[in-house]
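About this split. The held-out portion is used to measure sequence recovery: a designer receives only the structure tokens and must propose an amino acid at every position. Recovery is the fraction of positions where the proposal matches the reference. Here is one held-out target exactly as it appears in the evaluation file.
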């Protein structure tokens, strides 16, 4: 049987922008680190992670964008990933 390890991304979608707000519960500073889910998924995919599903956490709402004062749709998503857990290799001094 394959043992899995899991990770998740919390993604903010506002208007046409998609930003990763946290990775495995570690909150990112969005003033300095503005990565799209596609950038992060490509990086994690290269490390062996596989996207399992992406689900919205609440219905989409309409909010006022503070930078443009226009109304834009906003939603929040969780992306779940998994990869096989590698078995521990016993240490041998021989």
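Reference sequence for scoring:
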């Amino acid at each position: 049987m394959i043992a899995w390890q899991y990770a998740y991304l919390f993604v903010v979608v506002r208007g046409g922008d998609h930003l990763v707000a946290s990775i495995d519960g570690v909150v990112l500073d969005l003033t300095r680190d503005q990565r799209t889910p596609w950038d992060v998924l490509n990086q994690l995919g290269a490390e062996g992670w596989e996207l399992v599903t992406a689900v919205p956490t609440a219905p989409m709402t309409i909010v006022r964008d503070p930078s443009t004062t226009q109304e834009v749709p906003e939603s929040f998503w969780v992306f779940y990933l998994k990869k096989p857990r590698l078995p521990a290799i016993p240490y041998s001094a021989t």
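Annotator remark: The beta strands are 4-14, 17-23, 26-27, 50-56, 61-64, 71-84.
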